[in-house]
Amino acid sequence: MKRTRLVKKPDGDVADGDPEGGDEAADPSERRCIVSGESGPKEGLIRFVLDPEGRVVPDLAEKLPGRGFWVTGTRAMVEKAVAKGHFARAAKASVVADLGLPDLVERLLARRAADTLGLARKAGALETGFEKVMTAIDRGRVVCLIEARDGAEDGRRKLEQRLRVAKEQGILPDVATLSPLWAYEMGLALGRGNVIHAALIQGRMQAKVVADLARLERYGRKDRPENARAL
What pTM was computed for the model? Predict the structure, then answer.
């Protein structure tokens, strides 16, 4: 039987190495999910570490010291990692993986996405409101349409139709629509009441904003909490 080696990653993490006995992982930029065993780019996974008391904590910025444990970035995978003891198995030690960990990850991802959206507004890289978004589409400036999760379907449908027309006319390429945040979250992030429609404008902010919003949307969210306040 061939052994699976532990490979030291550049950032200090340890991940399962080549199960066939190779000396290195196939791609040092990838990480292996401790739940599925599948490898993929770091952008699609979430890093966790153990605090001094042995509790599992999320490390979304991937900067905390210690060995990292990577989980595919969806709520279902994090829930499975907690329920099935995957963190303890990967650490080969007794750890504390709280049942509320999946909810904590969602809150942290939402806060990160909202903070990034606020930075985009301050940088002048965001248009909000139905009419302003329509104008931005017609001018060919939009790189991402951002819709509140609880926004009316009619408004969203009209904006997406305008995007399709703009593409047919050669004004814009394909433009993604993301809906990771609730209207109250968008409003808090942008310093106003509920915000339903927003458009990210071309510029230096676009890669980070799209990455943070897409990460939250990919994770999967619970229903909007009643009497929701701050993130």
Answer: 0.85
